[in-house]
Each structure stands twice: as structure tokens, then as C-alpha cells.
């Protein structure tokens, strides 16, 4: 164990962890939204994210950008950011809806048992990831330097970059918007109603199928934003990027209390930070092992996660 | 007739729950459906509100065949149910629960009017307005379920065991409120274990036994029917 590695780098590890955690949190929302309404772990959500990481690359490619391009000036940079985000959001949102319509809805019509959903979830996930793998010859693809990470300010020996600030801010803004939507709007109330009591929701006139499509879509949108942030932060993507980060995101969702939106944010940030502490302490090869030790320990004391289960019950 | 049920059968898996029941509810009536546990009362209600698909037969509402219509669309047509077990949204406040009842409506000022009406009918709900539905007592949840069902301004109000779990004084009160709701123009179909109250307040009633309707008549007739007295009223 390398305590000095943790103590000396405490600041940088925390900042890196928060940025990583913010991406994980946005990703985790998709698991938690769908679980809250359907009690279903949508394993294909990791590929919804994966397609987002490629969608923005494709959009940037249309402008002739690749990993060897020079960093753009501020004006074009803003344009590229908007285009990249819109492309990822559209593709991830559409992918999430497609998974629901193709893999889950037909099963629901036939009253299939939960195990059938689990298998199709894994099947859909593998299918998409393999298609991307074949299409890219399992090579990684570099990301054009849309935003060059530059230090913005330094506290002690901790440098905070513009990219880290952007990632955390964007995650917080999206979380806040989603929270307002679920708790404040009429449609959001319909989502909470289905999550809390599907039969009663139908008796109130809530169209359950529409609510289900909506939560898939919302999860897809959040995953799309997370995908762009991931591209910019990591600099490359690959056909298995969704799988690896998806495990973290799923862990974060369970950690915070699956079905609970604010739990996903808390779980994501916490996981990101603690993973980086563990990496400082034991070396970065232990990063993922550490997150599962953490998960097990927390579930021992709080079996429903830090903030507890249920989409609708999470109230301010 | 506002509601016409014709020869409806319904099964849970292999277990036949309704063996071809037919009944009607006219506009402005209070109709009671009484019977023992497991006779199929709640199943009939679920068939009418659309929570359970029927195997055979037709359900007509306001002249329209709604047999195959989704539950949420029946609400828009004017069918509203306070379900067995109350079906409160535990994580929503009392007010949010009531507003869920008005989910299909858009006119804010009318919704506010109806909120006030619900609070006038059930002052207890006003006191608990900001409390989570899951923290209410059984009786309060019952009031909330009835109040919520009214929030859609239904033509037909389906009440499944509204007196269940209530103290005797509250039972009187809830039946008074049902009569009041009816006098304000809402048709009511009522499922009850409390046959005495239900028959004395209803215009007409049906007796359900193991998925079949075995008797029908005015509330007063059935109250005086020896077989009904014997089986459901607990008096010799």
C-alpha cells in the first residue's frame, strides 16, 4: 500500500475522480430510470452509451476533424461541441428507444417472465457491441481535440482544467433539469406514478407504454451527453468502451440506490472519487476491483443503496 | 344505460373468475355489487376499468363498445375507479395523489376547483395535504382513493370496498359522501362486503356468487330477501 501516493496526490485524485464520477453518474441515470419504472436492468444501456461515443466522432468527421486535427478556435469549438452533443443525444436516444421497441416491448406484450428480459438485455448488448467491433475491426478510434484540456486555476498543488469543470457542470445541470422534469412536470408525475403503482397509474389515465418509452429516451439522452464527455476526457473510444464504463455506471446506480435519481448522482461521484483514491493507494490496476469491494461493503450496511430504492419515493 | 355488461367471462390463467355475467348501470344510479370473498366482485371492477382483459362478452359504456379499450383511455371516456387496496402512490403527497386523479385534464382552474371540492368532502385530507400518501392511516388512504377517483370528473365512479378497514363512524360518513357525490350527478357502481350499508344506500343491487350473478333487484328488495339476509346480512 502506498499511503504517500494517496496523500501526496489527494487533490488531483479528487478532481480527476469527480470528473470521472460525473460521467459515470450521467450514464447511471439510464439504468436507474428504467429500473425504477420496469424493475428491469437494461444491460443494453451500455451500448446506448457506446453508440453515442461514435456518433459525435462521426459528426466531427463531417467537418473533416480527426485525432490529428489542430485544436479549433473558440468559435468553431462551440459549434463542434453543440454538433457533437446533438449527434450523440439523437443517436443514443434513438438507440435506447429501438432497444425498448425491439427487445423488450414484444416480450411485455406476451407477459414474458423476468428471465426472458434478462437474456434479451444481454443479447441486445452483445449484438450492438459486436456490430461496432466488426465495423471498426476492433481498433480504437481517436477523438479530435475539440477542447484542449488547459489548467484554469490551481489550489495548492491541485490543477483544475477547463474540461473537468465543463464535465462536472454539465452533469450537474443535466441532473437538475431531469430532477425538475420528473418531480415538477405533468409527464414526470406520470413516470413517478407508474414507478410507484402501475395499475393505479393506468386508472389515472397514464399511458404506461408511453411512460416506458419516455424513460428509455431520457436515459438515452443522458448517456449521449456522457458519451461526448467521455470522448473528450479519454481521447479514444473502442467497441467495448460501453461495457467497461457500464459496469461502473451500474455499480454507481446500485450504490446510490437503484431507481433513485439523486442516488445515481451521489453514487457516480462517490465511485469516481473512491476509485481514484484506491488507484493512488494500490496502483491503478486495482481501480475496478476497489469499486466492487466498496459496493459490497456499502450494501452490507445499506442493502437498498445509500439513498434507498424507488424513483418516486425520492423526494426533496 | 350508461354501462352495459353482456355475458362477460374472465379467467386468471386456468382459473375461471367470471362465468358470463351481465349487468347494467343507468345514468344517475347508485348500484351495489355484493357477494362473499372471491365471488368475483373486484374482478368485475377490473374488467370494467380495463385493468384485466375479458375473455368473452362485451362491455359498453355510454353506447360505445369499450371491451378492448386500454384502461387509460377508459378514464378519458369517463370511467374512474377507486381500486381494491386503495392503490395510493406512497411517495407522492396527498395533494399530488389528488392531482394524479386529474392527470387527463388540462384546465387548471377546474382542477383547482375540484381539489377544493375534495378537501371539502374530506377535510382530513386538507390537514394532510403535504404528507406522503404512504404515511396515511388506512381510513385516510381510503378517503384519498375516493377523492382521487373523483378528480377526473367521471361519469361513472367505481368504488371497490370503500368501507374496508374503516371505523364504524367513518363507514357511515363514507356512505353519506357516496350519496352526496351521487346527488351531485355522478353515477356510482359500488362493490361492498358491508351489504347492509350498501343495500340501504343503493338504488339497485346485484348479488355475485362464484363468478355468476344470482340475484338482482332494488336495494330495498334485496334487504328483505330471506336468502340475502341469511347469507350476507348476518341476521336470521
UniProtKB/TrEMBL annotation, chain A:
Membrane topology of the entry: Multi-pass membrane protein
CDD domains for the chain: TM_PBP1_LivH_like
Residue ranges of the TM segments: 20-41, 48-65, 77-103, 115-135, 163-182, 211-230, 250-274, 286-303
Subcellular locations according to the entry: Cell membrane
Pfam families found in the cross-reference section: BPD_transp_2
Keywords, comma-separated and alphabetical: Amino-acid transport, Cell inner membrane, Cell membrane, Membrane, Transmembrane, Transmembrane helix, Transport
Entry's family note: Belongs to the binding-protein-dependent transport system permease family. LivHM subfamily.
Protein name in the entry: Branched-chain amino acid ABC transporter permease
Organism this protein belongs to: Paractinoplanes aksuensis
UniProtKB/TrEMBL annotation, chain B:
Keyword Transport included in the entry's annotation: yes
Record's keyword annotation contains Nucleotide-binding: yes
Annotated SMART domains: AAA (SM00382)
Alphabetized GO MF terms: ATP binding
Keywords, alphabetical: Amino-acid transport, ATP-binding, Nucleotide-binding, Transport
InterPro entries in the cross-refs: AAA+_ATPase (IPR003593), ABC_branched_ATPase_LivF/BraG (IPR030660), ABC_transporter-like_ATP-bd (IPR003439), ABC_transporter-like_CS (IPR017871), BCAA_Transport_ATP-bd_LivF (IPR052156), P-loop_NTPase (IPR027417)
Domain ABC transporter: 3-235
CDD domains, per database record: ABC_TM1139_LivF_branched (cd03224)
Xref: PROSITE patterns: ABC_TRANSPORTER_1, ABC_TRANSPORTER_2
UniProt family annotation: Belongs to the ABC transporter superfamily.
Protein's name in the database: ABC transporter ATP-binding protein
Organism, as annotated: Paractinoplanes aksuensis
Lineage per the UniProt record: Bacteria, Bacillati, Actinomycetota, Actinomycetes, Micromonosporales
